[in-house]
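ligand=calcium ion
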Amino acid sequence: GTQIVADKALRTLAETMLIDHNELHVTTSIGVTILDQDSKSVDAVLRQADTAMYEAKNSGRNKFQFFDPDMQKKAEEKNRIQVTLRQAMNDNQLSMHYQPKVNLEKNEVVGMEALIRWTNAEGKSIPPDVFIPIAEESGQILELGEWIFKQVCQQINIWQDMPGFKDMVISVNVSALQFKSGNFHQLVKESLSEFNIAAHQLELELTETAVMSNPELTVNELKEIHKLGVQISIDDFGTGYSSLNYLKRFPIDVLKIDRCFIKDIGEDIYDEEIIKVMVAIGHTMGIKVVAEGVETQQQLDFLSDIGCDFGQGYLFSKPLNSQSSTEMVKNIPSAFSSYLIEINQIMENPDIKVELLINKNDPA
Ligand code: C2E
Ligand code: CA
Ligand code: CA
């Protein structure tokens, strides 16, 4: 019964309305909850319906959704992360780690990627792929993103006078939302001069999906940033939908092949062929190519053979805290490879099992 009513409401509201000679198109999201003996109060019931409605919105709008208790739990956990993240920013619970990027031909570290880490008040680490999407949803990513960006600039400022750092490039992950305002390039420009760092030692990583979600706006911001001399890298390449036409128009310096392709080297001939094509696309356009998530010698051999420029992954090094990465920078160029192996053995393991606050598999 409920379903029929909800369906009818959706269809009726979806019809074009004519107001003042203007055609209006409306889509509707409906949340439904069922009263039972456990229903505590009117408020509680309305909240459930509200939660279900947000779920309907998030799963593509123009639909209805029944409430289930899991939804409530997920919403509460999300809410908890938002609240505690605000605290974390003020409480020094956040820090940046750095993962080396290696030139596969010369076997040299050419740069590092900055990755955020969060250890909460109870000492648990919360992975960025859990809290970054939540911060994006709440808008907190704007403040967080600025903090991350300045933190990295400050680190470059500290490293820039060390001999080993001379030709290194440090990359920062940037969210699509940070580009929406259309003045991210302003922050970049100001930070370069505030921290007195050379633009060519800075690189921004944007996911393919982020770039393609609003290509017109992104292309302008990217051009402004590129003009400053900062490098641009397309992250998770191969997982979204890139128009080659856009790729050509964008000021891109680096493509990062997503780990999901790299992990199947030696097992999936199609993935191997796709990797070859991605490297070829990059090189045809004068773009360097990075393979992410390199874990085995077999993967490394394949990537070297096909002329992939750079690699990143646990085979070389896990992300290191800023102290360990400073040690590494200091010791380059002397015997980098043995040094990395050593440092990997002594450093704390950042990938120890963490208790997730929310289930990673939930398509939140
Ligand atoms: P990403 O940008 O694709 O980063 C690569 C992720 O793969 C990192 O996870 C890194 O630790 C992990 N990784 C590196 N090598 C290997 C390997 O050999 N094997 C495996 N299994 N994993 C490897 P992490 O640090 O947990 O970050 C996850 C995602 O969270 C990042 O994916 C990025 O999308 C986001 N993220 C992390 N830090 C930041 C940040 O500062 N700002 C923003 N906006 N997003 C961030
Ligand atoms: Ca990245
Ligand atoms: Ca990636």
